[in-house]
């Protein structure tokens, strides 16, 4: 059973108005990730994917990521919309955040701009910002959306949402 969408106020988007299959669009707001005193990512050239019931997933150009802190992780997965994903660890000093990033080196045609980008989970980092707002992680441990005040749910990932 589908949940009732939360009401969207002025300037807000409902994830229930997002499409399926997902849509890719440029993100004009600054995206920044900081952890352990390091600016891991900082861009004004990001992308976001929008999919029904999910908060946006943000992708950052590799050129705007401190790549010295990235390490290829094992494994991979397949997205029916974007193609084959590879995973990334983030290593800062003695801290290893395992498989907290993913990329699509050869994405499907509709997601071609993501070829040189990486997405990160929100949860493990000290600070994740979209514009001037600190983002919160999408519920659960599988999906990588970032929640901000201008996006309303309910969001897939929490208890009881497996079959949405």
Describe this structure as you would to a colleague.
It contains no helices and 15 strands. The chain is mostly beta strands. It is globular, with a radius of gyration of 15 Å. It starts with 12 loop residues before the first strand and ends in a 12-residue tail after the last strand. The model has no long low-confidence stretch (mean pLDDT 96).
Structure described in brief:
With 164 residues, this protein is an all-beta fold. 0% of the residues lie in helices and 45% in strands.
Structural class: mainly beta
Percentage of residues in DSSP E strands? 35-45%
Within the largest sheet, what's the order of strands? 2-5-6-10-9-8-7
Main sheet characteristics: 7 strands, antiparallel
Total number of strands: 15
Number of helices in the DSSP assignment: 0
Question: Which SSEs are present, and which pair or pack?
Answer:
Elements: E1 13-14, E2 23-27, E3 31-35, E4 38-43, E5 46-50, E6 57-61, E7 70-79, E8 83-92, E9 95-103, E10 117-120, E11 127-130, E12 133-134, E13 136-137, E14 146-147, E15 151-152
